[in-house]
Amino acid sequence: MVNLKGKNILSLADLSKEEVYFILQEMKILKKDPGKNKLLQDRIIGLIFEKPSTRTRVSFETSMFQLGGKAVYLRSDELQLKRGEPIKDTARVLSNYLDGLVIRTYKQETLELFSRYSSIPIINGLSDLGHPTQILSDLLTIWEVKDRLEDLKIAWIGDGNNVCNSWLLCCGLIGIDISAACPKGYEPDKKIIEKAKTFAGKTGAKIAVVNDPFKAVNNADILYTDVWVSMGQDGETEIKEKAFEDYQINKRLLIKAKEDASVMHCLPAHRGMEITEDVLEGKQSIVWKQAGNKLHGARGILASIIP
After folding, report:
1. Which CATH architecture has domain 12-131+294-305?
2. Above 90 in pLDDT, residue 164?
């Protein structure tokens, strides 16, 4: 029997296929009945965010309220961390006050340090290396739209960033084919690719990283993209816009995928850059359903791991 209580989710590599499906089932159950049994009555989680957030912050705060608990938002510049207090000290202190921590940070190492010194579960709310909670809620959306997770292909179009890294791990782990199309020099993390292919060796998933977006979308069930310029990369905007000009999800690209292919974007979207307005708002877009499921995803994750 799967028991995730107290488990860290720093990366999708921390989970097994069975554990992913367990969380997804929790999401489904709680989506039907958001207030079911007030599962986290009197529990309190902290949210330490170094980066701005709309969906991740609000979904986790709302989820805790709906599950009977509370969330404390902790701006990193208002903590003693800003004045040089070691992470290990902060982690040990907050473990006395809270039942879990969601951390949105610039460096994966920050999460790893918190997890090393905390006695409460740590959830990666986004780092430079991954965004596991985004992908877990996205799986719920795909399951609802396609009525399955097996025998599917995802085409990632754009930057080989943190969300792409997590998708590679996810697909390898549970057995979804993925082809990531990225410009040269902007491919996903090499160690992540290797890890994903190791997982795929057991599940039979096909993992590919290519430079041709039209090759990636061939026979794809899902087309997925993200912003070209991530938070903290503002100085690279002009360079990246030029490098990515052929990596836009538009009608010309969409028509090369399966006829019933769906389009996803983790938001915020820059219309006219990584995706066109007509595709984002078109009949094949499931972006707004995807965004709504961030709430149900957060609820399922919290209910699964908060003791």
Report:
1. 3-Layer(aba) Sandwich (3.40)
2. yes
